[in-house]
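Please, structure for the following, as tokens.
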Amino acid sequence: MSSTPKRPPAKPYTLDGLPPGLIFVSDIPFGFTMPDKVTMLGDAVLDQNLCSSNSSLPRPSVLATIADCVAGVPACEGMAPRLAVTLDIVVNIVAQPTTELLIIEGSIIKKGRNVVASEVDFFDSQTKALVARSYLTFMASPRPQDVAPPVASSMRTTSSMPTPFPEHVGAHIVRPGVAQIEHSSFVQQAAGTLQGGIISLIGEMATESLAGAPVVDLDIRYLSAVRVGPGQAIATPLGPDLYRVEVRDLGSENRLAAVITARVARSPLENAE
């Protein structure tokens, strides 16, 4: 007879004090708290190592990673003991920040038993203007072995990215339009699969290498997990400044893991004022 999995007894999960090198997320400087069960408030410091190549725009994959953590905590709380997995993330950068410090405001816009949808905004800390907006959808994992870790209602990393994001996590360009990364514990999430922010990063890199311009919009649809690796992203043009990216798990019969739509900006965005 099957039974509902129980959450493991453990200290509430937090990134506070995690040593650099354990997981890449701990090297992105950000934090947040939840004043109530549907609101998330925080901040992030995005220096040049977290910006797109030859640009001072934040990488949308970095914003996606932060948003995934910020929105993922209440999603896990709402679906526990089942693990909340990310279905999709949309990131739209609308302005150039005037400072490295961004303010984060998130909210749950739909909360069901099996699906949670969230919105996470990033604001310029000096001008208070919107820099980027993201939308995320989570679902309860159908795999009984995927049990949610204990989560806390706040999170704060204590490290910083010492080198550019792609270099730090080991992502590289194979050829123009193709980016790749090996599977390792440094870039995986709770279920042992490639973290969603890493999927978005290689999709972003594949696009940038083909377009020669920074990505400002990402729409990521997660279809299956990258469990073996390497994960490989291949970008193809859809139209002016718009690209389609397929991410596959090369070690798992080339299984399609994600489909991404990416838009690049060939001209600088206006400042967030």
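The CA atoms of residues 26 and 157 lie 5 Å apart. Confidence is low (pLDDT under 50) at residues 1-20.
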